Amino acid sequence: MLLSGCLAALMVLASCEKTVVETDFNPDEPLMVPVTLTGSIPETRVSLDGVTPKWTAGDRLSVFTADGTLCPAFTADQGGSATTTFSGTKPDGSTLGFAIFPYSASISQSGANYTLSLPATQDGTLSNAVMAAKIPAGEAEMVFSNLLTVVRVTIPSGMNVTRIELQRSDRVSGSFTVNGSTLAVTPAASPTDADKRVVVEKSAGFSGEDVLLCVLPSSSKQIDLLLTRSDGKMALVSKTLQTAYEAGHLKKATVPSNLVFSDVAKIGASTASQQYTTTTQPNTNATGWQVKNGDFETWTMDGENLPNYWNSFQTFLNGGNILTKALLAQGYSSSNRQVKRSTDKRPGTSGSYSCRIWARSIAGLATAQGNLTTGRVYASNTSATGTGNYNFTDQDGYATIGGFQNPFHMDFTARPDSMVVWIKYRRDESNTSHPYAKVEAILHDNVDYKSGYNASDCTGGTNLIGDATDQMITSTGSNWVRLSLPFVYRYSKTPNFVLINIATNSYPGGGVANDEMYIDDLVMIYNLYNLRTDANGWATLCLNYKALVPSGATAYYIKKIAGGYAELTAIPAGQVIPANTGVLVKGSANTTYAFNGSAADIKNKTVADVSGNLLSGTTTAIGKPSGTCRVLSSESTASLAAFGAFTGSQIAANTAWLTQ
């Protein structure tokens, strides 16, 4: 039993010995031996402007053998000086050849080249300053060289910047290769947008201090900084350096104390259509916004002799004595019409007809000029300049002709900015004493408003809300001409009627027989545009008139682009956007804002100076502009607008884009 017990013990011992050998000994792994290295960082090599970099206890190095094997991390034994010792292990019998700070297990080696990565998010110190050193024969002291460029950003006191972003057009961070023999740095090709920037953030804010950013060397001499303040406003600082981004050198960027912070827009790499900008015109054809039959297409009332909703001598009111009545009745008989439908129409119209009026002689005593009105003609004096001759709004009057009840008034309850009408005016050039025709539109309240030669017999006063008039229309020969008559408003009331008068001569009895005028497509124009923002509250806009920025919205123009961002300059609510100006608009999400260009509403308001604006705009749909065209993009957020490369073929009317 003793023997068997001993045998059993030996068997157990043999089993234990076998287990120990299999666990602790692996002939495929090299035997690691301890080694101590000395490393120094001479200031003259780093050029940090009088600031000597110092090691910190616990700093770790990536150390490679001459044949490219990465050793376990070497750790600094002590800190506080530019020279320290690092302890670590290496494969027994190997020769150390190259060291990189800080340590990274992901550094790869191929021949003489080592590939590593610089983080885009940094802490504002030299902790990201990648250094490398060739390890001399005999593992003598290593002299480290800074592979990067250090940019020192000085933030003034009281500025409270929470985020600093350095941008460049080439690779700033990310993957790069260092040559172990020459220490030359080669950034990886094809950088993404994220590789073109480094960022330092601090929630408490930077104020009155220096922030260090480590970036890859480059031949570029441009530096762009995007600074974000604690209130979310941003500012762009652009500077041209005297020299390029050289490895191991310091670049200084002092932020001006008077730097202006504002909103910015992102210049994105994504593509975009224009679906993120929605614009809608107001319904200017609603009842009371346009003159009825202003295109002169409807003539059912009196055949070809009078357009519906308009009047002339055949519906006049005779208010004279017996002699005057007889004379006027003869002159204005049905056989002596001075209005006629015409197929001579203005170019580009979609209609078929225009209205022709002309002058003629009455009994050889006077010239009856061609007269067309939305009111009614009143005649009580044989003298053309008599106080009893005028056109007027008859609020309750109608004439029934041909089964059509034609009013002697034109209901109108809007405040247009101008009236546009096409005319072709031909007159006898021998008459030089009164050579002008006239067009006028009078907006008034509930009164039988009179408009005639003798002002004392006309209405005016507080009943006149606004008017648009041109009484110096010269002959256009055989050409159609577009007239635009701006309204001048005297009172802020809403009108009830519009009295429009058109005559072949602006002076009563002026002109001669056969003076004629063709009239087509009379339209009221409203400088009012309803802009609807997208789901993030953004939109772009361009109008062909000056427009007031409405309450609740802010318009922006762009004067500076740097490093993928556009600096936005605000045009606040209550100020005026110049005509034909592309702007970016910010408001509440999915909200409609009325951009009003009424002359009365923008009077005495500040018109923004947008000189240098980089936004382009169009008031009509156009083909895609040449070059890189960027429109409002889906990358936009509630706080940051983004522009992306336009993928469509046509730019929508009343929108803006950025050409970069």
Structural features:
single chain; 660 residues; mainly beta; Jelly Rolls; 3 domains; nine-stranded mixed sheet; eight-stranded mixed sheet; 4 helices; 6% helix; 42% strand; disordered N terminus
Walk me through this protein's architecture.
The chain is mainly beta. It has three domains: 32-261, no CATH class; 278-282 and 528-659, no CATH class; 313-525, Jelly Rolls, CATH 2.60.120. 6% of the residues lie in helices and 42% in strands. Strands 42-47-44-45-21-52-51-54-49 form a nine-stranded mixed beta sheet, with no helix packed on it. A hairpin with a 2-residue loop joins strand 6 (108-110) and strand 7 (113-118). The longest helix has 23 residues, at 2-24. Residues 1-26 have low confidence and may be disordered.
What order do the helices and strands come in, and which of them pair?
Elements: H1 2-24, E1 32-40, H2 43-46, E2 60-65, E3 74-76, E4 83-91, E5 96-101, E6 108-110, E7 113-118, E8 121-122, E9 131-134, E10 142-143, E11 145-146, E12 149-155, E13 161-167, E14 174-179, E15 185-187, E16 197-206, E17 209-215, E18 222-229, E19 234-240, E20 250-254, E21 264-272, E22 278-280, E23 317-318, H3 322-331, E24 339-342, E25 354-358, E26 360-362, E27 366-368, E28 371-373, E29 376-379, E30 390-392, E31 398-401, E32 404-407, E33 418-426, E34 437-444, E35 450-452, E36 464-473, E37 481-486, E38 488-489, E39 497-503, E40 516-525, E41 528-532, E42 538-541, E43 547-548, E44 554-562, E45 565-571, E46 576-577, E47 583-586, E48 592-596, H4 599-602, E49 615-618, E50 622-623, E51 629-632, E52 641-646, E53 650-651, E54 655-659
Parallel strand pairs: 1-10, 8-16, 12-20, 21-52, 23-29
Antiparallel strand pairs: 1-4, 2-3, 2-5, 3-4, 5-9, 6-7, 7-14, 9-11, 12-17, 13-16, 13-18, 14-15, 18-19, 21-45, 22-41, 24-25, 25-40, 26-27, 28-39, 29-30, 30-35, 31-32, 33-37, 33-40, 34-36, 34-39, 36-38, 41-48, 42-47, 43-46, 44-45, 44-47, 49-54, 50-53, 51-52, 51-54
